[in-house]
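Human: I would love a firmer grasp of how sequence relates to backbone shape in proteins. Take your time, and here it is.
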Amino acid sequence: MGRPKARPASTINLKAGQGADVRNHPYPQRSPVLGLVFGGTQVLVTTPANDHVTLDDVEFARSLAREATMFAGAVERVFHGLPKGLGVAGR
């Protein structure tokens, strides 16, 4: 990927739970926006310029999709591995 790898200066932990939501907002005349909602906090992911998209933007979007797919698989494995899918209580 063309983006430089730098150590994060800070970390924000947003916990998905009841009420969390994610939506893709495609627009015909500008780049799309991915909206993530965690209670009262909303995160918008989009490209740096809303009137054009670069190869780096495409690579980032593909990487985001790949990592989200792996995250979903990991969550499903944990859920299906728990007794009756009841959660992590007691672990």
